[in-house]
Amino acid sequence: MSDPAYDRGVFLNCPFDPAYRPLFHAIVFTVKGAGLEPRSALELDDAVENRLGKILRMIAECRYGIHDLSRTELNIASLLPRFNMPLELGLFLGCRVFGSGEQAQKCGLILDREPYRYQKFISDLAGHDVHAHAGHPRRAMAEVRSWLCTARPDLPIPGGAELWRRYTAFQEDLPAICGVIRVRAEELTFPEFVAAIGAWWEAQIFITS
Fold first, then answer.
1. Higher local confidence (pLDDT), 12 or 122
2. Plot region of 132 (φ>0 → left; ψ -120 to 50 → alpha; else → beta)
3. Quick one: three-class SS letters along the chain?
4. With 90 as the cut, is the pLDDT of residue 120 above it?
5. pLDDT of residue 208
């Protein structure tokens, strides 16, 4: 039998730059709202442990993974691409192929900005279903929801329009939630943001029950 924490864990292999943040927040909201636990390298702040070791440990602790490959363009300063996301996708796939037991049960969603764009920089992914979000949070949310509905049909996930309505309501309520803990929304750490989403979802369940 799998570890319940492992079966709820969703490793988020996504960009962290400000331009991507609206998509990242929409993805986190969708995962948490489905009753699963979003995990990210942003939660790691242990100077003693090697960063790659932290990521490997987190991948090992999650049955699910969401991998966004949309940030592969050249960095303006270095004129080099950032390939952290493709690297971490490879680690996740390696765990599934070469792992045993619960590791072999891993299930993932691969995202990109445009359909088939990934074939220009990772042709070995041919044959994998890569979903396009076009850089829009609502589209990313819809792709994550559709994937979760197939990966975890046991979870009560609202429809796409309703999910987006709830996310809009959460965004409107977030300043008040932050006021309770005396922190500005832009100062929230990843664990605090996830906790705020969880508290909001629980309050909605209580209100509608």
1. 12
2. beta
3. CCCHHHHHEEEEECCCCHHHHHHHHHHHHHHHHCCCEEECHHHCCCCCCCHHHHHHHHHHCCCEEEEECCCCCECCCCCCECCHHHHHHHHHHHHHHHCCHHHHHCEEEEEECCCCHHHHCCHHHCCCCEEECCCCHHHHHHHHHHHHHHHCCCCCCCCHHHHHHHHHHHHHHHHHHHHHCCCCHHHCCHHHHHHHHHHHHHHHHHHHC
4. no
5. 43
Burial of 166 (0-12, 13-18, 19+ CB in 10 A): middle
Percentage of the residues of the chain whose pLDDT score is greater than 70 = 94
Tell me if residue 111 falls in helix, strand or coil: strand
Average pLDDT, the chain: 89
pLDDT for the residue 47: 60
Task: Specify the pTM.
Answer: 0.91
How is residue 43 annotated by DSSP?
G
